[in-house]
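Researcher: Here's a chain I'd like modeled. Treat it as a single chain, no partners, no ligands.
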Amino acid sequence: MGPVTSSVPMFPSIPLAEWADTKETLHRYAQVVGKIRLDQGPDRNHWWNVPFHLTGRGLTTRPMGVDRVFAIDFDLVDHRLQVDTLAGDRASFALPGLSVAEFYRRLLAALASLGIEVAIRPVPYDLADSTPFAEDTTHASYDRFWVNRYWHVLSQVALVLEEFAGRSYAKTSPVHHFWHTFDIAVTRFSDRRVPHPPSVDRVTREAYSHEVISAGFWFGDDNVPEPAFYAYAAPEPAGLTDEPLRPPTARWVDSRGAHLALLRYDDARAAADPRATVLDFYESAYVGAATRAGWDLDALRR
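Model: Modeled as a single isolated chain. Structure tokens:
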């Protein structure tokens, strides 16, 4: 008997309403691990040291630490959290059924069993509630199907973003998954620094030290309650929203005093060639923003 194989359709359905509770729990799991990454990893420009990366089974922090080199992985096939050290030691535990508080407790115990000490601020960052991780027994939903679907969608979008990233000679970030906003994105930079007033926070100052144009995807939130592809420029050049977007279903939307180019995930799914449609969307937003900002498109294009 030959091997059993199965395929995942391009951009499978992932309506936010179907897994909103699971997403909120998983997002907080990710913030716990992400804060450990922030504590244990070496600093990089634009916070490139902080986000997660995709693996063949889920997400990884990549190796970090000094005295004890280790990585934390979410295995979203077997639904386990795994801590591996450079010495070959391992600690892991199952994810389904854990509240955020229990996840936090088990992860700290796993790290301690491997001789790893961490120091983080143990509260959510920029989420609707600020319940300390150790006290959060409210968020405890974990639907295996939707967690696995989330990883499938992330993996497919990541490859589209990798292709888009490869079209430019501009300084470009890795394609990475942010535990802050639970999105996946890639960013192109110009060589022009952005002056920030003293009131701008440290996170924003470092992330947007230079002019950028970003492309990404998120699973939906209170402001946009459905999954969507997006792009934006920071700082936003004058007249940006007059630039046309492709396909016709894409649009410019208001976002925290600026604008996002937005393409609904379900509109991309409905296209004859979803992958090509998303790439064309990203390209139209990039060309519009780069043109308005005065970037040298010919010099940067591969």
